Amino acid sequence: MSIASKSKRLTPDEYLQSESARSIKHELIDGQIVAMAGASANHERICQNLSRKLGNHLEGQPCEPFGSDMKVRVRDNFYYPDILVDCHFDESEPYYTETPVLIVEVISRSTRRMDEKHKLVEYLNVPSLQEYMTVEQDVADVTLYRKSDDWRSVHYFLGETIHLESIDLALDVKDIYQRVRNDDVVAFYEDSK
After folding, report:
1. Number of neighbouring beta carbons within 10 Å of residue 107
2. CATH, residue 166
3. Coil, strand, or helix at residue 25?
4. 79-97 pLDDT, tens digit each
5. Which of 53, 59, 163, 170 is deepest in the core (most CB within 10 A)?
6. What tens digit of pLDDT does each residue of 11-26 get?
7. Could you tell me which of 97, 49, 46 has the C-alpha nearest to residue 69?
8. How many folded domains does the chain comprise?
């Protein structure tokens, strides 16, 4: 993510109007626009693995997964999480939601601070949110924060299974990291031979 532009502060309406005309996605944080960085191959692999699992599990149900082009509105701020699940999507606002039950951010060294501090605090202010999950791309470590557990963080590693209460899905950590290339994943598969 780049440093916020020092231009005038935008209102949510100004941001939504200007964002649809931009070729690069921007988040709106405290009235300032912040350009979104590109993603690595491992980042994309993790997102695709999760999207496939969530989409297959939720087929035919009222809850639906969205990718990184769907914004989440938190007060007057707008964020592009990597993945979200919404069970009460408001069709009158087709470009953002205020009612996700699950938000997933795939993190790297460059995004960790934003995703584990700023966005964590922001997302916990979304009344509908039940779970917030961060997935490391450089090591195999998934952190899940649950509303039902007072937002306490729980880490999951290769060989373990995560139960997403918000959508009643059991998810093996190894499935999240399928085809991902980092030292943890390589060592896990070497040890399991």
Report:
1. 22
2. 3.90.1570.10
3. coil
4. 999 999 999 998 999 999 9
5. 53
6. 999 999 999 889 899 9
7. 97
8. 2
